[in-house]
Design goal:
Blueprint lengths: L2 H9 L8 H10 L2 H13 L5 E16 L10 E3 L5 E10 L4 E2 L13 E11 L8 E9 L2 H10 L6 E2 L2 E6 L5 E6 L8 E7 L14 H9 L3 E5 L5 E7 L8 E5 L6 H5 L8 E17 L1
Length: 287
């Protein structure tokens, strides 16, 4: 399987259970007739802007051998240092995720948990510009949001977890636990505690403390591979104030088969917390 086929294959929805409903749902979500109609309609009527008051964002990042990374879309390249490239898992709780135009009525919308697994790209024509996220995996814990995202978006193709815990305690410690059953959600168990300060010598290649934090958190575009092997781009607004980031220390007892299969030592991860941040999905298009 090629790297591009891996991204396209991983985007295909697999339900956590092998029930009749679980076998039927992927056929509905991937119906080619609906995909063609949705794309045609979106060229005339773009998707509405979405908003969420995100909270308890935890970033965990590692250096990964770039040979494990999928081929990037045309016009983009990976940031590589000594044969390795950054990879981040960030998990958080939405705050009333829904159409921005709903205004105060958005308070009636649910607040699902979400975990984004991503690589980082640079644009060939702007190698020193803002990094672009390349989605590797996405997970949510509410079926309505998973189905809605897949039915109306090419760039956001989340999988449904059977169990999703994302807990941040008052002292800064906490854990993220994801189980996917028989579905496509990748397994994860991360544990952390508050750290006394920033200590990340392995990340010195990113050009200093502030530059590193901006690189890992400040993006305005995310790219994904679709199930039918297209590239989709979504523009986002995520105004991260790096002065509010809080350092964390990874703890033992961690588990992530996907990263461990790529030779990653989970204990070497760089982790930090962002208590709150407003999040906006601005637009989406096929590349």
């Amino acid at each position: 399987m090629t790297a591009l086929e891996d991204l396209a294959q991983s985007a295909i929805y697999r339900h956590p259970s092998d029930s009749a409903f679980g076998r039927m749902l992927p056929r509905l979500l991937h119906a080619p007739q609906w995909t063609r109609l949705r794309r045609a309609l979106s060229r005339r009527w773009p998707m509405p802007a979405l908003a969420s008051d995100v909270r308890e964002v935890v970033y965990a990042s590692w250096w990964v051998d770039v040979r494990h990374a999928p081929l990037p879309p045309a016009g983009h390249h990976y940031v590589v240092h000594e044969g390795r490239t950054p990879y981040t898992i960030l998990s958080y709780r939405h705050g009333h995720f829904g159409p921005r135009a709903a205004g105060p009525l958005r308070a009636l919308m649910p607040s699902p948990r979400q975990s984004n697994w991503r690589w980082y790209l640079r644009r060939d024509d702007d190698p020193q510009g803002t990094p672009v996220v390349l989605f590797d995996r996405n997970v949510m814990d509410q079926l309505a949001f998973v189905a809605g995202a897949r039915a109306f978006s090419d760039a956001m193709q989340p999988h449904l977890s059977t169990r999703f815990e994302h807990v941040v305690h008052a002292d800064g410690g906490g854990h993220t636990l994801i189980e996917g059953g028989q579905g496509g959600a990748p397994a994860l168990h991360l544990r952390w505690c508050a750290a006394d300060g920033w200590n990340h010598p392995a990340w010195a290649a990113c050009g200093g403390h502030a530059a590193l934090l901006r690189f890992l958190t400040c993006q305005d575009e995310a790219i994904a591979r679709t199930c039918d092997q297209r590239w989709a781009s979504t523009r986002i607004d995520l105004p991260v104030d790096i002065a509010r980031l809080q350092p964390l220390q990874m703890q033992g007892g961690q588990h992530c088969p996907r990263l461990q299969a790529m030779g990653v030592d989970l204990a070497e991860g760089l982790a930090f917390r962002l208590p709150t941040v407003p999040f906006r999905v601005v637009s989406e298009r096929l590349l």
